[in-house]
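Bug: token stream looks shifted between consecutive jobs. Job 1:
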Amino acid sequence: MSHAAVERPSAPQPTNGLDRFFKISERGSSIGQEIRGGVVTFFTMAYIVVLNPLILGFAKDANGNFLGGGAGDGSNLPAIAAGTALVAGVMTILMGLVANFPLALATGLGLNAFVAFAIASKMTWADAMGLVVLEGVIILILVLTGFRTAVFHAVPTQLKVAISVGIGLFIALIGFVDAGFVRRTGQGPVPVQLGTDGFINGWPTFVFVLGLVLIVILWVRKVKGAILLAIIGTTVVAIVVEAIAKIGPQVAGDKVNPVGWNLVVPGLPDKIIETPTLSTLGHFSLLGSFQRVGIVAAVLLIFTLMLADFFDTMGTMTAIGAEAGLLDEEGLPPSTERILVIDSLAAAAGGAAGVSSNTAYIESASGVGEGARTGFASVVTGVLFLLSMVFAPLVKIIPSEAAVPALVLVGFLMMQQVREIDWNDLEIAIPAFLTIVLMPFTYSITAGIGAGFVAYVLIKIVRGKAAVVHPLMWIVAGLFVLYFAIDPIKAALGV
């Protein structure tokens, strides 16, 4: 798949105002493709509306309080879910309207756990969310001053390709893990294995395998809407399986069922509409954290949040742009600065809404795989997030096992870019290799990018070519060394 912009010498003329505004025909798409792509993206990331409350809702702050005023009995989860869907919907619609890019945003996984267990445990929830708002504001300033885009220009093109490929492997692994196809062993020297005991077992995992087979068949047969059709078909199978076998969830209170459904138990809902509550909105304190844990500790926490958010989005938008054939000759997507501005605002908005930092989602690649090429797909995804606030029961009928086969397929599509890396040039091949393998192996986009950047600068030094390294690469590599050593630094400073 070409890393450069797609040449279309005779682009069709827009058919209406919507087509003209979003450049749908110009980018070789159609309104139908955009709608399907937006729907698929929503289905592959709708799990965050369920998962984010589970991560944030049961974590206690330093005063023993739960986010949203809950009592530890789950009563606060609907409010967190509504806030999660609201911010995701609004910011994703803004991404579509302002940046015209098929990229959806929602509460960042990994970042939300960091906020819940590493930040909120040291202060109040309001203080923790205030740090998230500050991080978003700082990122926004870096975008508006041109620093964030300048860093992106300084990264060698083949290293950008490696970032896309690594993200492809990473989201494929996410798909396998979320479906229970790949699991932690919990014992012995091998960290992961097939299924629960080295074999495929449990109906949910079987449903995932069936969905993967179906999506591959539809894809190779070039069926329009292959991804969406596979998700719908697999969901129907999942509902039937649950109705017959009564499997239930993996975790229900104190009971653990290893072969249960991961997040959502499929089934016909008792009701279709729920009235959302938004009690988490505005639950933040900008400077309370500095009084609570001190200036040094607060700054280090902001730095950790910022570095992860800074490079996750840069890698994600590159991967999406490459998959959609929208990158220019420098490997940048159209309206790069607008994309980064919306992403920065999303980080701050997530904190202001009390649902943790929002960021770009690599699951957007599933919509691109369905044909999305413009921001209209993002508008569709955003509207569905807003609707999910009141139609939450409908969102809950689609198990992750039915949606994540799309991630595995998209991982394959993104992996195809690996041919563009010169594997005979050790100065780029080794950093590219580390970038690609460490993203899935560490379950972190940031770790993969950081290792690649540091290795690139180090090898240039060793080979006597330090002078050709862009000054910003020196700065970023140094920041990543600091990032990787953040815990020893905290220990040394006593924070």
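Job 2, same session, no restart:
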Amino acid sequence: MKKILLVLLAIIVAAIIGGCIYLNTLMPIITGYAAKNLASAVFISGREPADVEALDLNFSFIKYNKNTVDYEAKTVTSRFLWAKSTAVFREGYGVTLLRGKKVDELKAEKFPLAPAEAIPERLEKADPAIIERLEPIAKAYVDDQSYGGVPFALVVLHDGKIAAERYREGLGPDTKFLSWSMSKSFTQALTGIMAGDRIVNINAPMNLPQWMNDGRKAITLNNLLRMQAGLEWNENYGNRSDVNLMLHREKDMGLYATLKPLSDEPGTKWLYSSGSINIVMRYLRAQFPTDEEFQQYMRDRLFTPLGISEYYFEPDLSGMPVGSSYLYLTARDYARFGQMYLQDGCVPIENGLLRVLPKGWVEYTTTPTEGSEGRYGSGFWINSSLRLPDVPADTFSCQGHDGQEILIIPSKNMVVVILGFTHMGGERFPIFNALLSDLVAALE
């Protein structure tokens, strides 16, 4: 009997120790997610902490964090059991998680560019008859939540003009919203611009030093943008996955993804990976001698032509913008981006159109990637598989995992921006399908 009790005791102790070790590996994710997202929501989006905690952070272990907002220092510290994480807001940069740096040390790093001059609003209102047909749908979606989900904003452009615009109470046209994975499409656009300027070649091996001695040396920007790099990756958001460790533990997110081993021959298997896009961003930055020159190029060649003067493309501790996840723009800014793709990579200027993306880039963007079952092109999702069954098949979109969408519908000359919060995953698509089909029907 003594031996049995000792064995049972040993098993219990081992289980407790094993559980604590596993929980300890989750701590950077649990506390880091809360600190980072609460800080960005408060200091960039201007939301109240209680609202963010009740909505955005009210799930899994995340809801058990004790969060402290310091408005003077512009930091958020989140504590769970024995662990804590601190996130710091810096003007120009946005919010970054502290990992091995002190607050003052990080704040000493100043954003390399002066604030840009404000750009006058270019979006006009659509014909009143069109607005009259679409606004009731926008109101039903945002105000009444009659379609489901928790909507933050809805903006609809038709013929490049605002046909519907609605915001959750407390939010508005000046609010900057988190992109989550919609930022992947912006990184794809930046890649296209640099390809058009002959700075990068998307079909050439990237010659990264970490890849030169194995099969990874064949990986191209095209492979990464199409999610066919062949690198080992786990994109499961609900556990201690690669994507969670990258976003909440790593100082250099692109480097972390770069060091992943090869699991498949490049170009042969489709596997969605946030790490791939952070490798792309890191590679794009490496084409410039300094952060200042890279940031200036990104501003001058992407954001300014779109009419966007203020944005936050938040960096990791290495100073690299997190191309996979952390862009903050207004709903109208996201709509402007979608309109550029609707107009074959061009934006309106006083005397016509200015080409921003190289000719043929939008066609490349919407060409289905082999292995994606008709769901993915290059940096954008596509609807050729009719994932949204009642929405035109030529629709393509930027998607964020918490319910963010920029949908471009060429056959209807329409751009729809949906911003909100939901943990429903794929279950949100029936909501968006119903909303979009009603908007399209109202136009017709």
